[in-house]
Description:
single chain; alpha/beta; 6-stranded mixed beta sheet; 7 helices
Amino acid sequence: MIEFKDVSKTYDGKTYALKDVNLKIDDGEFVFIVGRSGAGKTTLTKLLLREERVTSGRLLINQFRLDKMRNSKVPYLRRTMGVVFQDFRLFPKKTVYENVAFAMQVIGTPKNTIKTNVPIFVEAVGLKDRMDAFPKQLSGGEKQRVALARALANNPKILIADEPTGNIDPEMSLEIMNLLLALNKELGKTVIVVTHEKEFVNTFNQRVITISDGVIESDRIGGMYNE
Ligand code: ADP
């Protein structure tokens, strides 16, 4: 479970990027976090990944207490999360297979496990036939699929997608969203999708949390985001 309790974040000590945020996300939930540019979405993501620390309040992710955690424990937290970004962040000189394998290598996964599991993750995102392709040979949608396979590689409980469709055409964007939904439904991952594409979110019947000027403006199921 993820829980924000009266979480505030300021970068300069006076302006609030987030103010008194109270929020609970249960295991296995699918959540959209939406809001205009500057609303505080990136800040919220950075707090979850402990790239930034809360200024005040409590932040819990499963057994981790992020507001109190030492920096030396952060890698253990990050292993429980898979992240994809708008700009994919793939290694250009590594193939699809190698990009996914690398995520497993860095945490010391045995070679045999890597060999067995990489194809499973690549297949899960529908790219079995592109295993040996390099990022530059792939479309935006395909690159994001690779990023998703890599995010899945260490079997995280939580998937965070930060503007995952920002660099992808609308048709492919729908596919990526459907894939994220499938990973939620079929693998039981907690999925958090951060986006400013409010119209897009309306087409899915999911929980939508709207942030505006650092506060939660609304939190409801159904994607009726009309503001
Ligand atoms: P969003 O992702 O919704 O566009 P952000 O979380 O990036 O919003 O920004 C929220 C607010 O915090 C904005 O007013 C932004 O200018 C400010 N902010 C974000 N990052 C920093 C930073 N590193 N230093 C100072 N202010 C920041």
